[in-house]
Amino acid sequence: MQPLRNRTAVLGTGEVPWDSPVIPSDDPGLRGDGFFETLLVHGGPPPRIVRLREHLDRFERSAAAFALTLDRTAWEHLVAGITDDVPAGAEAVLRLTASAGTCTATLRPVPQSVREGRDGVHVVSLARGTSTTPDAPWLLAAAKTSSYAVNSAALREARRRGADDALFLDATGEVLEAPTANLLWRADGRWWTPPQAGRNVLPGTTLAAVAAQFDVHETSCRPEDLQRSDGAWLLSSLRGAAPVRSLDGSPLPVDESLTTVLARTALEP
Ligand code: PLP
Prior knowledge:
Radius of gyration: 18 Å
Strand content: 25-35%
Largest sheet: 8 strands, mixed
Structural class: alpha+beta
Oligomer: single chain
Bound molecules: pyridoxal-5'-phosphate
Shape: globular
Order of helices and strands: EEEEHHEEHEHEEEHEHEEEH
CATH topology of the largest domain: D-amino Acid Aminotransferase, Chain A, domain 2
Helix content: 25-40%
Number of domains: 2
CATH class of the largest domain: Alpha Beta
């Protein structure tokens, strides 16, 4: 199999050597004042970018929250160029980043840790503190902002505790989402996910794709509800549907055939 080429492109400039220092040190994005998208690309020909339209829709909504306008045609052109030679059998991560200063697209291999996560993850619950987001658009609740320091810190804390991932709890102890994924679980013969409105939960493209195929209901839940469930999954673009193998040290049931069905929906274009 041909190796995957690392690639980098800058909006308005085009492709540059993949390891070029393209973001100036005073770029607002470096202070977290920016937004991004992470997409999965399957090798071709032709390469298949999973849910490109849905990701660009969310990218546009994030831009609007930053009072910026996205030139969608220019981004589509940049994306098509940078993904045109992903070889058959390869999987790549396409990351689009934008700020008022610099806009980039990068293509890299899917990390091994992400592939391993598809087989299952051990999760710990961690407080995120805030309970609900009032009507305060300046808090950027539904935007995929680059202010990911807390999300990264939660993942580090999860690893420090010997787990792979975390589930954020609000101030009342209800589950919100994972630092880079939404939660789905199965109980009473139905699919469930925590409510998103006003709770600073990112509307995931993977969850939306799963909800378009399966009847997913919203309800609030606590870690102990998940421990009594018939299974739970972390849904995200790169890992697809990662079954939760344990929560706070208690094993959760894993249904391999449901995981296969969910993963097919989650990881396919
Ligand atoms: N929630 C958060 C906080 C995320 O960062 C992500 C993805 O990075 C998701 C949910 C899942 O979103 P998607 O399915 O679009 O990848």
